[in-house]
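Forwarding the complex inputs:
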Amino acid sequence: MIDWPLVSVIIFLPLIGALIILFIKEDELTSINIKWAALLTTLGTFILSLILWLQFDYSNPSYQYEEKFRWFDDFNFFYHVGVDGISLFMILLSTFLTPLCILASWNNIKKRVKEYMLSFLFLETVMIGMFASIDILLFYIFFEAVLIPMYLIIGIWGGNRRIYASFKFFLYTLLGSVLMLIAIIVMYRNTSSMSIEFLQGNYFSYNTQLFLWLAFFASFAVKIPMWPFHTWLPDAHVEAPTAGSVILAGVLLKMGGYGFIRFSLGMLPEATEFFIPLIMTLSIVAIVYTSLVALAQTDIKKLIAYSSVAHMGIVTIGIFLVNQQGLEGAMMQMISHGLVSAALFLCVGVIYDRMHTREIEFYGGLVQRMPLYATVFMIFMLGSVGLPGTSGFIGEFLVIVGAFKVSSYVVIGAAFGIILSAIYMLYLYKRIIFGTITNNKLADILDINTREKIILIPLAISVILLGIFPNLFLDPMRLSLELIITNYEIANAK
Amino acid sequence: MLNNIYNIFFIPEIFLACSSFVCLLFGLFLKKNAFRQTSNLAVFVLLLTILLVYNDSESNFANYKSLFSHSSFINFFKILALLGSIASIIISKDYFLGIKLKNFEIPVLFLFSTLGMMLMIASNNLMSMYLAIELQSLSLYVAAAIKRDSISSAESGVKYFILGALSSGILLYGFSLIYGFSGSMNFDDISFYLSKYDNLNLGLIFGLVFVMVGLAFKVSAVPFHMWTPDVYEGAPNSITGFFAIVPKIAAVALIYRFCLVPFENFYLEWSQIILFLSIASMFLGAIAAIAQSNIKRLLAYSSIGHIGYILIALVAANDDGIKAASIYMFSYMIMNVAIFAILLSLKVKNEYLINISDLKGLSKSNPIVSLSISIIMLSMAGIPPFIGFFGKFYVFIAAIEQELYVLSVLGVLASVISAFYYLRIIKIMYFDESKSEGIINFKISFQSKIILFLSLFLIICFIFYPSLLINISASLTI
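Prediction (whole assembly, two chains):
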């Protein structure tokens, strides 16, 4: 094992990079240095996080690489970080996507490059920190601190309605998360502990659990987002710059799912049992409703944003099935969605950079001019639809298998959603890529360049890798998920 | 023990009183640079007073036991008030010179008002409390109206004076009722007398309510807040800074002591009042600030909102509450010092900044200043990892310890509303495109820079080493 604080280094390396960038004076010539500094930092973080995976002990269900320091003298609040099977891939997802985001903004961010890179590096630190926290308050601090860089990214570098979108994003998610703060304090008051590890169990009376559950639900349901709390998402996605959408879809939405697994399932099992019908109903409504809404969109980004809500519906179903297949499916779906939707947003970014519009009507027949682009887009589109062989299939399949054990109504809902997702994605693909070029402006559009290849090809490879060798990802998380399920069943068997 | 007559001068209050007179004479006989020199002397005097307060031992107060009390809580708040007034004198020096308001009386007025605040915080007797409040307020009335040729300054001074006098009248009437029905003016005696009864009689309840009204006026809690935005707006910016930073500290300490010492056994009676004041202040502070275009009015409403949170900790009325209040007050002070240090150095077209919309484009011309303002705003909104978050966090810990769930939820909801207007400032600086660049100019003196740097450092770095402040505040006893 590694005897130096690997997790802390991974968390704070981007911040150190940010501090270095802070002292680079920005002008025309040096902005390239800033970009390189940011890219190298994030790549370094990614490589370190790969060590995390390589050295990971698959037979250990609890936290590894733990670091624990007393922080506040007056109550049991520790700087306590570590990684288990559930957070491992969330961290990898964050560290994998951030360098791609930096690359994706290489040329299209022209104003305030320094602030942009600072925001992204700070964002990476808080994202990783959040997934690695084993202390609830630490988790909360990172969870809320995410809002600051994201608010700036949407607000400064976003589209026309960016101000509306950034405020909506910030206030909506803040409203959810402040209730979680109250819940955290109530938990602390009842148990005198803030350790996520310790609180995995059943420590609260039934009524307390119900209230705590609702408070956590408020923050995670907004974050993930579940219907009807999803309205901030299309706005934020559409207005955010490409890289902002990528992080938003790729990582920030997973914070909700991660929170549900850790907090709702792990700490409040009895309340979860009580609220399962609610979650299932909302999820099925989300899947069907947002899929239908996606079908009607004219803006590509908005369509993908709504598809995210639908995919997250599958995730919440998977999580709240609380069985091995369901949870594994949910985790796979989260990782897959993190890659696929991020890639789709990057694909949209590619044509947006060239044409500066996201209207579906505008495009058509891109395959004639951009064969490579059409190919990678197809991989991601099929991944989103859930074609066997791609990552999307594993998640959806496992969730449906798990759902059969619980209720066939849920299966019908989920399957219906999956069919709808095939419809809107294929329809989108047909309209943008196939056919002949009808719009003269597209006549000399260029295919993806080297930089874009560097961004999209690793994503395409990992989508297929995930689809063909799911065990590579499922094995490390299996025991951690089993632990949660066992705790849950013990608590509810009483 | 006062076995030596000279020791009397080492009692911080007496030292400060004497030194204030020295400052006054010093300024009076100085031919040139009177304002600057007097300010420097005032800062020096306040620093010495901090040392004296820090080393103050209980024996010094032996002779004043019936009038003043002595505890760690009192000392903490005294030091906080002294630090606040040092900071505000330093950051306002250049502003006064800039607007050619060079009356050497200003630092002297600040000194007298600080003296009044120290006495307020320490007072253990209705009479000394009233006199201290008056000393503090009268200095501030004059300070608000110090810019004599400006109508708005005079108006704010008069407004403050009339409303302040009214509230003092109500306060005094409350005192007389309490004295009449309990037979004593001393806090401890009142407490002892009241401990014999299960519930308060009508006269005492009336007295309590009147006193609460008067104190609510002093801390500017809703619905007795009306003067705050107007006075903040009318007074010269640096006086506003002083208003925002220092008197609140003393008034909060006083309201804590008044509720928790003489009336400690009648929690139910006063907590209802405080509960209402708290909820009303949080929400009004949050909602009314949204519509403001003047930065000083906005900060006035923001301070009203902050008072609401501090009063939550008072409703909790436990050790955690005292701890929370001192942490919150500390964070409130440094956040206000930081924001005023910036505001007093920002000029738009050679006028000091008033309109929030003038901040437009600041992020381009002064990226570091706008970053600092953003950090202060996020901290005020209570977003981690800045100190403002921990202030709120401790307040909610105290509230939940007392099972005040509804109050806590209302508190966090109000904080979400208030986040909107703090974010609006960031939005104006960063998101709005400015057409005219270079009209904002930021010039800050070396001393103010140190103050600004220190306060920003505390705002950002509190999270790395919280134990120092937290251990101090945890050890406070009322």
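Chain A has one domain: 6-493.
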